[in-house]
Amino acid sequence: MNLYPLLRPLLFSLVPETAHEVTLKLLKAAHVSGLGKLIYPAIKDKPVKVMGLSFKNPVGLAAGMDKNGDYIDALAALGFGFIEIGTVTPRPQPGNPKPRLFRLPEQQAIINRMGFNNLGLDHLLKQVKQSSYTGVLGINIGKNFDTPIENAVDDYLICLRKAYASATYITINISSPNTKNLRQLQQSGEIKSLLAALKEEQLKLQSEHGKYVPLALKIAPDLNSDEISHIARLLPEFEIDGVIATNTTIARDMIADHPLADEAGGLSGAPVKDKATAVVRLLAAELQGKIPIIASGGILNASDAQEKLAAGASLVQIYSGLVYRGPQLIEDIVKSL
C-alpha cells in the first residue's frame, strides 16, 4: 500500500526542515505501532557482497537523513539493504542558521546547507546500541566546524576510534560543501596524510577489537578529472575499502534560472545525476575493480540506479529520491535488479 503520494502534498506544505522531522517521527510511530508492516512493501532479498560485507540488497540510505541515529529501526523497516547514519562530529554542534534546507520540486532537487548539525558522537553511539537493527550500518564521520582544518585529522581519528565497535563500515566525509574548508582535504598533500593516519588507526583498531571495519571515502562531484584520477590512485595505495560517489554539488548551471539558484549549499536530486554518474564512470575506469564504488546522487527511479550500476557502481544510496518518491523507490530499484 503506497500512501506516500497522499502524504507528500501535506508534507510539502510544511517548511522543509519541519517536514523532514515530521516524516521521521511518522515513520517511527508506524514502526513502533506495527503499522509499517501493513503499509511498506515486502522487499525480496537480492544479496550482494561488497567490501567483504554481506548486503541483503544493493539499495542503501545515504547519510544525512538520520544524522543522530534516532530512527535506525524505522528506516530499516522500509527495506533498505543498508543504512548510513550521520554525518556525526566528535562534539555536538547546531549547524548553520535556518533556513538551511530548500526544496525545488519542479527540478526534483534539494539545496541544503545544514552544516553537520548533530547531537555528537556519544549520542549517536547510544542510539546505535539501543537499536535492534542487525543489518549493515555505516557511520559517516566529519569534523567539527570550529576545529582548524590543519587539525581535522584529529576529529576523524576521535570518531573512528569511538565508532569502530558499533559500525559495520565507516565513511570519511571530506566532501560536504557546508563546513568551511572541508573540501580542501580532498587535495593532494592533505588527503594523503589523512588517509595514512586513518588506515594506520583502522589496523590498530582491528587488532584491538578482533574485527575489521571497512573505510569508505566520500568525494564531491565537483572535482576535475585529474583530481578524481589522483584520488583513485591513492585509494588502493592506502588500502581504503570503498569510495562513495558523490556528495552534493556546488554547481548551479543545471538550475540557473530557478529563484533559489543563488542559495548557498549543496544541490542534490535529479540535477546532480549526470555529474555523479560521470564521477562513478571515471573512478571505475581508474580503479579497474580494485575498490568498490557506492553511487549516490540523482537516483529518482529504477533506471537511474541501473545507470549508476552500469557505470561501475556495486551499491547505490538514495536520499532526495526518497523525499520525492517515497519508500516505493526502494522496491522499484530492487525489483529491477
Radius of gyration: 18 Å
- CA-CA gap between termini: 22 Å
**What sequence of helices (H) and strands (E) makes up the elements?**
HHHEEEHEEEHEHEHEHEEHEHEHH
* Strand tally: 13
CATH class bucket: Alpha Beta
The biggest beta sheet is recorded as: 8 strands, parallel, barrel
- Which residues sit in consecutive blocks of at least 5 with pLDDT less than 50? none
The shape is globular
Assembly annotation = single chain
Topology:
Layout: H1 4-12, H2 16-33, H3 36-39, E1 48-50, E2 53-55, E3 59-61, H4 72-76, E4 82-88, E5 101-104, E6 109-112, H5 121-130, E7 136-141, H6 152-163, E8 169-173, H7 188-209, E9 215-219, H8 225-237, E10 242-245, E11 266-269, H9 273-287, E12 293-296, H10 302-311, E13 315-318, H11 320-325, H12 328-336
Parallel strand pairs: 3-4, 3-13, 4-7, 7-8, 8-9, 9-10, 10-12, 12-13
Antiparallel strand pairs: 1-2, 5-6, 6-11
Helix pairs in contact: 6-7, 7-8, 8-9, 9-10, 10-12
